């Protein structure tokens, strides 16, 4: 039986980063991935000359001193072909037919917003100064016990919507400031300020696309793990965790092979991880029930548009377009029609002035696709085609030449995510954080089995920034945070 120091379940960003950190610390790791392709939400698929991203489109804060820089320097990911998005407007938010640009840099951002909303100049300056401070104090989240207005624990207990409502008198300004974040599920009654502020701050610092797609991140991390002696295996679905003497002693792969390890890290959804462990007195029923009952964020529908050659000029910014007035919503209101779309342009690999493909993302609830959970057919295809048409119609208001220049449309729904990344009900960002139930919805990497830890977007903060931070929190359980911070500071 193969034996490793650490078995890691899942080769998404969280699994690969944990594999990288622990390999650097001298552990012999084995990352097990159920799919034929590594990367989870970082997977890219190719159709002809076009490469489409699935669950990753852009990151923020890659410049020196910014949120993601030291993390990506540590992971040796800074030399990938990152493309800085338009500093004069990395995002364009369109509400009630009017466009608002988000420039990079806190001061420039504040100046631009104040041009649009001169009567809120002071409030905008306070808001951007607040976001800046949140970013500057991000590393405090790594040090237990530090508590000030800008650390994770205090921000997690505050409502993002309440914060914006207290800060601004003009509801349109609140909607504009939130407009580039609607895919993160802007649920007024639940979203913690931490999630909203960390992510918005990192994008306002600087925004970046990756020429060639998110799979480059996964390939680079996997290559580094292998070069340090670790293994990354595909087509290796973990089907059971075997317990012996109160520890997980091995995992079963594809129901046939046993792989042993001293420690196990799972990046699967916590409820799904526990479902692979047969009944044992070491896992209390209440813990299992708690994980199973956690609410998850909604899913996303993506219309991947392959375009006719040299028809749509490449735009180095995202477009966020709204049909209604507010991107803030009650969770269940999302069902009604296509009211919002994020448009992401694929960076041309050839240096052409035109893009070969565009992704349009819009929220989608599990209930919308659950009728086809156990079998798809023509009705499902018709449903997807209808949704894609709605997305194209909405975006055509901003890009009138789009419709006639579409060569082909591919789609993905929450069902696709359930099947390709194993996310619970196709949720885009995993367990929903709720500022009023903080200790219920914020999870520690530690499980009730002492050599089994969790990692990935379900625990703390979703997205590339959040998952990278969480990888450190998880590995700190094995090697201590102090030594990891030293490594992080020295690069
Ligand atoms: C549509 C979409 C767009 C997004 N856009 C952005 C963006 O632009 N910027 C950003 O920062 N973030 C974005 N995100 C979020 C970001 O991609 C995720 O937060 C992050 O990649 C999640 O990483 P993870 O490792 O936690 O999970 P995942 O990527 O889901 O990885 C989990 C892995 O575990 C594997 N697995 C599951 N079960 C098993 C098993 N039994 N055995 C073996 N392997 C198993 C899965 O196949 C998968 O590879 C987006 C997400 C979505 C869905």
Structure description:
The protein has helices at residues 13-24, 69-74, 106-116, 121-136, 152-156, 160-167, 171-178, 193-205, 215-227, 270-275, 285-293, 366-369, 378-396, 414-421, 438-441, 463-479, 481-490; strands spanning 2-9, 29-32, 44-47, 50-53, 59-60, 82-84, 91-95, 98-102, 207-210, 231-233, 238-244, 247-253, 257-266, 299-307, 318-322, 340-345, 357-364, 406-412, 452-454. It folds into 2 domains: 2-62 and 70-77 and 214-294 and 435-490, FAD/NAD(P)-binding domain; 83-212 and 296-421, Polyamine Oxidase, Chain A, domain 2 (Alpha-Beta Complex). The mean pLDDT is 93. Strands 1, 2, 10, 11, 12, 13 and 19 form a 7-stranded mixed β-sheet that branches. A 7-stranded mixed β-sheet has the order 8-7-15-16-17-14-18. 51% of the residues are buried. It has 491 residues and is α/β, with parallel strands linked by helices. Bound molecules: flavin-adenine dinucleotide. Residues 9-15, 32-35, 40-42, 55-59, 237-238, 267-268, 300, 302, 361, 417, 421-423, 428-429, 456-457, 462-464, 467 line the site of flavin-adenine dinucleotide.
List its salient traits.
491 residues, 7-stranded mixed β-sheet, 21% strand, 17 helices, binds flavin-adenine dinucleotide, FAD/NAD(P)-binding domain, alpha/beta, Polyamine Oxidase, Chain A, domain 2, globular, 19 strands
């Amino acid at each position: 039986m193969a034996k490793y120091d650490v078995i890691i379940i899942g080769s998404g960003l969280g699994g690969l980063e944990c594999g990288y950190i622990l390999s650097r610390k001298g552990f012999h790791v084995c990352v097990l991935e159920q799919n034929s392709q590594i990367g989870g939400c970082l997977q890219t698929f190719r159709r002809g000359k076009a490469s489409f991203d699935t669950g990753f489109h852009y990151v923020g804060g890659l410049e020196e001193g910014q949120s993601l820089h030291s993390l990506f320097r540590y992971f040796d990911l800074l030399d990938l072909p990152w493309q800085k998005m338009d500093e004069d407007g990395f995002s364009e938010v369109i509400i009630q037919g009017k466009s608002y640009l988000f420039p990079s840099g806190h001061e420039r951002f504040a100046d631009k917003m104040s041009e649009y909303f001169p009567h809120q100049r002071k409030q905008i300056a306070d808001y951007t100064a607040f976001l800046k401070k949140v970013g500057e104090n991000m590393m405090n989240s790594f040090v237990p016990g530090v508590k000030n207005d800008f650390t994770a624990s205090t921000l997690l207990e505050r409502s993002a919507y309440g914060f914006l409502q207290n800060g601004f008198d003009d509801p349109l300004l609140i909607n504009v400031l939130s407009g580039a974040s609607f895919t993160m599920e802007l649920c007024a009654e639940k979203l913690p300020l931490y999630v909203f502020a960390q992510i918005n701050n990192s994008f306002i610092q600087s925004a970046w696309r990756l020429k060639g797609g998110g799979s480059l991140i996964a390939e680079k991390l996997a290559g580094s793990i292998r070069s340090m002696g670790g293994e990354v295996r595909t087509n290796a679905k973990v089907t059971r965790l075997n317990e012996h003497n109160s520890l997980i002693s091995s995992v079963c792969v594809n129901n046939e092979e046993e792989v042993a390890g001293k420690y196990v890290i799972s990046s699967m959804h916590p409820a799904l991880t526990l479902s692979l462990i047969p009944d044992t007195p070491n896992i209390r029923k209440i813990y299992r029930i708690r994980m199973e009952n956690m609410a998850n964020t909604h899913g996303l529908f993506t219309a991947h548009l392959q375009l006719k050659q040299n028809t749509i000029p490449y735009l180095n910014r995202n477009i966020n377009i709204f049909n209604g007035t507010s991107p803030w919503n009650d969770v269940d209101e999302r069902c009604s029609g296509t009211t919002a779309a994020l448009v992401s342009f694929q960076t041309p690999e050839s240096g052409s002035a035109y893009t070969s493909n565009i992704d349009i993302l819009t929220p989608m609830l599990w209930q919308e696709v659950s009728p086809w959970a156990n079998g798809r057919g023509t009705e499902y295809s018709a449903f997807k085609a209808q949704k894609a048409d709605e997305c194209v119609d909405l975006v055509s208001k901003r890009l009138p030449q789009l419709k006639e220049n579409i060569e082909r449309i591919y789609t993905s729904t929450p069902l696709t995510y359930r099947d390709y990344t194993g996310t619970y009900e196709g949720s885009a960002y995993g367990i929903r954080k709720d500022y009023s139930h903080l200790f219920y919805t914020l999870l520690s990497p530690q499980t009730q089995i002492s050599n089994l830890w969790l990692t990935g977007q379900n625990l703390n903060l979703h997205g590339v920034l959040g998952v990278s931070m969480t990888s450190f929190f998880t590995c700190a359980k094995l090697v201590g945070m102090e030594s990891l911070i030293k490594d992080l500071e020295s690069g």
